[in-house]
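Batch job 17 of 40 flagged for manual review because the log was empty.
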Amino acid sequence: MASGFVAILTVELHFPEASSLKDKRHFLRSARDNLRNRFGASVAEVDHHDLWQRATLTVACVARSARDAQDLADGAERWLVSGDWTLVRCDRVLVSPDDD
């Protein structure tokens, strides 16, 4: 039975326009909603919860093939680069549940 692939992005974002946690939440909500709607990604804020202008997100894109998972991750990264924030760092890993 095929198990598929997961492309996992860990991204650090900087929000130069944010002057409060409320502003940061606005940017994060936009990022999460767009990544979910455009790429079917699962998104979680994993670090820098208490900082106004910084966030680290983990983004997971699931697909049947490694190529499709990579393509979704490529699109998500391109979209993040074009946002109302600065993409400071993006790390990527591709995994398959069959990997032992």
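Reviewer: the log was empty due to a logging misconfiguration, but the result itself is present. Residues 36 and 93 are 19 Å apart (CA to CA). Unflagging and moving on to job 18.
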